[in-house]
Amino acid sequence: MIVLFDTDVILDLLLDREPFADATARMFSKVEKGDITGYVCATTVTTIHYLASKAAGAGKSRKSIQRLISLLEVAPVNRAVLEGALEGKYDDFEDGVVAEAAHHVGAKAIVTRNVRHYRNSTVPAYLPGEILEMIMAGEGTA
User: Fold this and answer.
1) Which option is the CATH number for 2-141: 1.10.150.240, 3.90.1150.10, 3.40.50.1010, 3.30.70.1620?
2) What pTM was computed for the model?
3) Which of 21, 46, 68, 102 is the most buried (most CB within 10 A)?
């Protein structure tokens, strides 16, 4: 199963935001084991670096980004993704970019805590715990 991680859940993990970090850590464990293929949107990487630098310092942020991109594939943000986000019925352009990037890499799910932000996405959005339940039930292994 291919999933794209939204910015919020990655920040939950990197900044150890409780009570949310645990479910995301379990999702990343599934990526490490090869049970799922994880993606991050290219724009998310820059956003995370900026926010993590403010919260944890530039050195720690850089190491976190290196680890992140060694573990996850990077979904490109190109003209097709940007045009799709502009033409789509998204309330927020950034969410539209994430949704379109997920669509273009063939993701089956967007992992987020803001499921309602993706109600108009062609790729369904789920909470980390919901995806974990799907994987455990054998639904998310295709």
Assistant:
1) 3.40.50.1010
2) 0.90
3) 102
